[in-house]
């Protein structure tokens, strides 16, 4: 039953229970502390009217005293003062504890929301910082199609000036311009997706497609550092539920870490996307650098811990937070040359007819 419907049904039940307790307590000769049952009303109020717990507690205590006076005034029973006091104590203590618990829960929820927002902003800052580091590569990637468009436009004009004009060559030049326009638009799209600040948008994500985007965005940066990227994308890898931009941020961070670890000599970076199990997708990024010292492997994902002299120590912790938010795990794999970071993510559940 949805929470809203439960709350709607709970409110009239609380009212009826309150009336029933008062009637039994005030107009029946039962020799017991019936008013203690108001504790149930107080506890139920936490879910129905969380901001009125103290008010309902005070009302229940007032009804307890009223019932005590009525039973004595009407001669229904010799209501014991001690039973009344026990009931009042039970109601008051329950109301106080329920109110304190409700406030503590509200504070925890507020703190969780604040942390979710210190995290979203930090992840955004990290993405923008990464784009700053890639500024030269981005400029080059945009310049290439622009230069090609200019050259093809001049060629098209020359073919048009011929006598007679060579329409076939003009058409070919225009088609190349359109292709370069699409290429430049793709570069800008990738940059905008990383730079935008927005809440995560969860949807099925093709990790092989994300890996290709990352490879295209880092192409020149890798070449400038003497690194070559080997993409190993298995067939029939199911999509994972998640935010495409955040997952792209994780892969870019791991690839840049691997690239920087192999400086100044460069080497091969391997990015593998494969199906590890029917419902698990595995990503691994391996480099040919010096590897991770054994005494540092356990601290690799701690905030502000970095193996680089000028590192901030926030890239990998953010990666871990993003991966865990997506229901996955990230770890450094020991053994072999270089360093290998492995990520496992749950796949989108396949619907069966």
Tell me what the structure shows.
With 353 residues, the chain is an alpha+beta fold. It contains 12 helices and 7 strands. Strands 2-4-5-7-6 form a 5-stranded mixed β-sheet. It has a two-stranded antiparallel sheet with strand order 1-3. A hairpin with a 6-residue loop joins β6 (329-333) and β7. α1 packs antiparallel against α2, α2 packs antiparallel against α3 (53-73) and α6 runs antiparallel to α7. The longest helix is centred in the N-terminal third of the chain and has 37 residues, at 81-117. The model has no long low-confidence stretch (mean pLDDT 81).
Average pLDDT over all residues: 81
Tell me the helix content.
55-70%
- Based on helices, strands and strand pairing, what is the structural class? alpha+beta
| Anisotropy-based shape | elongated
Q: Runs with pLDDT <50, length 5+?
A: none
Largest sheet: 5 strands, mixed
Radius of gyration: 33 Å
* Count, helices: 12
End-to-end separation: 26 Å
Number of strands: 7
Approximately how much beta-strand content do the residues carry?
5-15%
What is the N-to-C succession of helices and strands?
HHHHHHHEHHEEHEEHHEE
Please state how the strands of the largest beta sheet are arranged side by side. 2-4-5-7-6
Q: What is the strand and helix layout of this fold?
A:
Blueprint: H1 3-27, H2 38-48, H3 53-73, H4 81-117, H5 118-133, H6 135-161, H7 167-195, E1 202-205, H8 207-217, H9 219-224, E2 227-233, E3 240-243, H10 244-261, E4 267-277, E5 280-286, H11 294-297, H12 315-325, E6 329-333, E7 340-346
Parallel strand pairs: 2-4
Antiparallel strand pairs: 1-3, 4-5, 5-7, 6-7
Helix pairs in contact: 1-2, 1-3, 2-3, 2-4, 3-4, 4-5, 6-7, 8-10, 10-12
